[in-house]
Specification:
This protein is an alpha/beta fold and 751 residues long. It has 23 helices and 30 strands. The strands form seven sheets. Strands 11-12-10-13-14-9-15 form a seven-stranded parallel sheet, sandwiched between helices. Strands 16-26-25-17-24-23 form a six-stranded parallel sheet, sandwiched between helices. Strands 2-1-4-3-5 form a five-stranded antiparallel sheet. Strand 13, helix 13 (353-364) and strand 14 (367-372) form a beta-alpha-beta unit. The two termini are 47 Å apart. It binds adenosine-5'-diphosphate (ADP) and zinc ion (ZN). Zinc ion binds next to loops. The site of adenosine-5'-diphosphate has 17 residues, from helix 10.
Length: 751
């Protein structure tokens, strides 16, 4: 008999192996197989495969079957196969990408264990006798006082006590082993599940279970429970302004689903958001809640995954990859902040967590809730078309008003205060009011580093990355200054003179979060100021720690990138300042306006979530741009109308489907020629059917990356499948090209 196996090798399709007669392996089981000269672990994807034998090629036998049952549930294997096909990725790499750590390679499952001591029948009998005063003193006189004390403690805990715990109570390992030597105590190794909740120690504020829902929350819950009761696949867009209490709705609907004996999967866009959300679910559902994200240690992630697989979990909270968690009997999938770009994986398999969630919901007959204050164009488009049911929350809880937004025209600020100004006078005045009132402030600038470029006044050149077509970003000040590439991490000391022309006038231009932080410290030396971006939270745990400090009121002003804009609920924030609202608008990306609108609306939504009024100050040099104007008015519908019109006239998603194919090459000409070859074969295949449009080849906006040149084809069509198949065929026609092309279906970023 033959099986088809997925192996963790990029671009590799399923491979066929022979199994001995009489063995029927399960789909989803792990298997050791030979691959070239190596032995690798794979996942069985088909168990009764027909061998499409190639003449003269022998089908190799497997080495060892590692599981007698499915290790990955078969429906999850199927979901991964769908993902591989839809996103034009290798089935092998996709299926193995969803495995938890420690099960991928050739390492066996690793478990953390502990030693547990428990009393034996003889020991229990002795204690009982001693306590009744009737014991035969012969054995007991062999015991020291400490040993007797230990035996009594253990007799009081028949399930046993961990030796570590006994040690804390003054009972050494030595005493335990003496007792074991007498046969009164038994010591066993026990597996412990590493629990990320223990370490994070995140506690939700005391939730008010009896709290009254707002009328809008009430009617959303009523409608969603009706959908859940139908136990069929539905998608609902929960379109609620920031602070409208969407989380409360998720919790209520999840409770209904759980009461009906089904399970819940909740996706959040950022690792940073999981502890808070998981803590709320833990409060409601006890410890049958698991977390899945890449920020956990391998051990924690592995143990949580195993608990889910064993069916010990009712609610899984996690980031993108949790969409493949081995949960069974799914009744509800929640995708919170569904518009968020981080649901898209930017390496192969390039899947979109939200879209895979919808497919999973469809297959499980589950309700899918997509929650957002600023739905993606795709989702809203489906809602308008009636494919998704839209539920609206227009008001914040307790009738708290949305933050009032004021735009500061930076061209005027530059004229008044000079071109160097980072925090305008208007913003500084507002910050001072908050500092005096001991309220908290968030300052957003979606750009890391101190300065964005080093510029030579003599030759007008910039300090560029050696491997990528970008200028280096300055990090740090004074002697700690380095210029670093944000794409490949290449870095150099900032030189005293221009490396190109030796000109001595090097100037730093542009600014990032580090500079904003420094400015804030300069203006308010006694305020407690901190920065949150990818540079400041590199160490595991530091992000949680920083957010907790902010939440506890130990920080007055938090400066950060979009990481501060997402989903957080900080009730003491009354002011949000946006330093340069237009950072994203200059990008050569059709989603630039959408992203800007979302970011501004979301960050303004962080202000005024408590009892005090909130306010946002938005600095920009394009005060008239529609995405800035409409974000300031928080008018989603107007933005959607405007943006959909643009997408329509330019033939962009969601009105057509799009694939971005990037060809990499050692030289620019090579990359360009190869992309042109693909484009030509595509156009030929299409003939005069006009099933798709091919744009390019053109240099990619990021023209060089990690030493390779990049060229790009954008393909658009209303028939995604046909377009994908034609593209794959056009690439397959030049086998040598395979490794140098990346195909991104439904791209979120086209850089
Ligand atoms: P959203 O996700 O819609 O931005 P959240 O779910 O974070 O909003 O809720 C905002 C705040 O309102 C939270 O602090 C939450 O505890 C609180 N909240 C939610 N529902 C109610 C309610 N019915 N009454 C009072 N406060 C509520
Ligand atoms: Zn670089």
């Amino acid at each position: 008999m033959f099986i088809r196996v997925a192996l963790p090798v990029p671009g590799l399709d399923l491979l066929t192996y022979r199994v001995p007669d009489g063995v029927t392996p399960a789909v989803g089981a792990r298997v050791l197989v030979p691959l070239g000269s190596r032995i690798v672990t794979g996942i069985i994807v088909e168990s009764r495969a027909v061998a499409e034998g190639v003449e003269g090629v022998e089908i190799k036998p497997i080495r060892q079957l590692l599981d007698s049952d499915a290790f990955i549930p078969p429906d999850v294997v199927d979901l991964a196969r769908w993902t591989a096909e839809y996103y034009a990725a290798g089935a092998g790499e996709t299926i193995t990408a969803i495995l938890p750590p420690k099960t991928r390679g050739d390492r066996p499952d690793a478990h953390k264990t502990r030693r547990v001591a428990s009393v034996t029948a003889a020991g229990a009998g002795l204690v009982a006798g001693l306590q009744a005063g009737s014991a035969d003193l012969a054995p007991s006189c062999r015991l020291s006082g400490r040993q007797r004390e230990a035996l009594e403690i253990l007799a009081g805990a028949p399930a046993g006590i961990a030796t570590a715990e006994l040690a804390r109570r003054g009972i050494s390992g030595d005493i335990v082993s003496r007792l074991a030597g007498h046969g009164f105590v038994m010591v066993r190794q026990e597996r412990v599940d590493r629990d990320p909740f223990e370490a994070g120690a995140f506690t939700a504020d005391e939730a008010d279970v009896s709290r009254h829902l707002t009328p809008e929350q009430e009617s959303a819950v009523t409608r969603l429970s009706a959908m859940v009761a139908a136990q069929t696949f539905r998608v609902s867009l929960l379109h609620g302004v920031t602070g409208s209490g969407k989380t409360e709705i998720y919790l209520r609907v999840a409770a209904i689903v759980r009461a009906a004996g089904r399970r819940v999967l909740m996706l959040v866009p950022e690792i940073a958001l999981t502890p808070a959300v998981a803590a709320l679910f833990r409060q409601a559902f006890g410890d049958r809640v698991a977390i899945q994200h890449s920020g956990l240690s391998d051990g924690e992630r592995h143990d949580q995954w195993q608990r889910i697989r064993r069916g010990e979990i009712d609610v899984v909270v996690g980031t993108r990859s949790a969409v493949f968690a081995p949960v069974q009997q799914l009744g509800l999938i929640i995708v919170d902040e569904e518009h968020d770009g981080s649901y898209k994986q930017e390496e192969s398999p390039r899947y979109h967590g939200r879209d895979v969630a919808i497919v999973r919901g469809q297959r499980a007959g589950a309700l899918v809730i997509l929650g957002s204050a600023t739905p993606s164009m795709e989702t809203y488009h489906h809602a308008v078309a009636g494919k998704y049911e839209r539920l609206v929350l227009e008001r914040r809880v307790l009738d708290r008003p949305l933050a009032a937004v004021t735009v500061v025209d930076m061209r005027e600020a530059y004229a008044a205060e000079g071109p160097e100004v980072v925090l305008s006078r208007a913003l500084r005045e507002r910050i001072e009011i908050r500092l005096a009132r001991r309220e908290q402030v968030l300052i957003l600038l979606n750009r890391r580093g101190f300065a964005t470029a080093v510029f030579c006044r003599q030759c007008a050149g910039t300090l560029d990355c050696a491997n990528c077509s970008v200028s280096l970003v300055v990090h740090g000040e004074g002697s700690a200054r380095r210029a670093r590439c944000h794409y490949c991490n290449y870095s150099v000391r900032v030189p005293p003179a221009c490396p190109a022309c030796a000109g001595p006038y090097l100037e730093q231009t542009g600014f990032g979060t580090e500079r904003v932080e420094a400015e804030a410290r300069r203006f308010w030396p006694s305020a407690r100021i901190a920065r949150l971006d990818r540079d400041s939270v590199r160490r595991k745990g530091s992000l949680d720690a920083l957010l907790t400090r902010f939440r506890n009121g130990d920080i007055d002003v938090l400066v950060g990138t979009q990481m501060i804009a997402k989903g957080h609920d900080f009730p003491r924030v009354t002011l949000v300042g946006v330093v340069s609202a237009d950072v994203g608008l200059g990008m050569a990306d059709f989603r630039a306006s959408e992203r800007t609108f979302q970011l501004l609306t979301q960050v303004a939504g962080r202000a005024g979530r408590g009892s005090e009024l909130g306010e946002a100050i938005v600095q920009t040099i394009y005060p008239d741009h529609y995405s800035i104007q409409l974000a300031c008015r928080q008018d989603y519908t107007a933005f959607y109308q405007r943006e959909i019109h643009f997408r329509q006239s330019m033939h962009y998603p969601p009105l057509v489907s799009m694939i971005n194919a990037v060809v990499r090459g050692r030289t620019f000409t090579r990359a360009m020629d190869d992309a042109a070859g693909v484009a030509e074969r595509l156009r030929e295949a299409d003939g005069d059917r006009h099933a798709f449009r091919v744009l390019g080849p053109a240099p990619a906006p990021l023209g060089r990356l990690r030493g390779e040149y990049r060229t790009q084809l954008l393909i658009k069509s209303t028939n995604r499948r046909r377009m994908r198949e034609a593209l794959l065929a056009a690439i397959a026609a030049a086998p040598e090209l395979q490794r140098r092309v990346s195909v991104d279906v439904d791209p979120v970023s086209v850089l």
